[in-house]
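To assess whether ligand presence alters the predicted conformation, the chain was also submitted together with SN-glycerol-3-phosphate. Input:
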Amino acid sequence: MKKEIEIELPVIVLNEKAYVESAGNRGLELAEICDSVATERGVSIVVCPQQVDLARVASASSIKIPCFAQHVDAVEPGSQTGFVTLESVKEAGAIGSLVNHSEHRLKIADIDFIVTKAASLNLLTIVCTNNIAVSTAVAELKPYAVAIEPPELIGSGRSVSKVDPAIVADTVKEVKRVDENCLVLCGAGVTNGEDVRAALELGADGVLLASGVVKAQDPRAVLLDLVSGL
Ligand code: G3P
């Protein structure tokens, strides 16, 4: 029986996306690297496997860290084809989901449906946003967390916490003004411990990242550097 898992802060959330490097067994191996670094260094890491690997990774005996889905659809269970329901994400063993990632945008009504229903299912939601106005609006929906990610920096290797520190600091300020309990993560271009430290100094509760680890020659080495910033 997997022990009750919570997200400790600060946290590093690895979004495995749909990269070839994170498909199938490679996705499980990346999650195992996250798990071993989290255990070894006593830090908080969450992994978001590819959708088709979610149940397999979340239920693997080698994985004790929390898993999140990369996306859920705003649909009820039933006669739906190819959609992912919150209930199925919970059944798969995830404790939450990313929502509205810039690579999978949703309407505000869908975000509201997902955040509200996730809360009723005791699932956590990390809602991705692209600017301060959207972050402020999303905070009104009471998600578990907002993750500010300027799309133009995603995959760039140029960290939002260095390139645009104001968007991080101002998102923290505005989101906490709306809901002091809502966490704020930041992402896009985060690739090393310095980037992580800078994000935390700006008031973020953690970071969301992908390519710096998934596409690395040595994902473990990169992750060890990233957690040095926590
Ligand atoms: O979900 C996080 C992701 O969008 C950031 O991408 O590759 O810049 O770390 P990356």
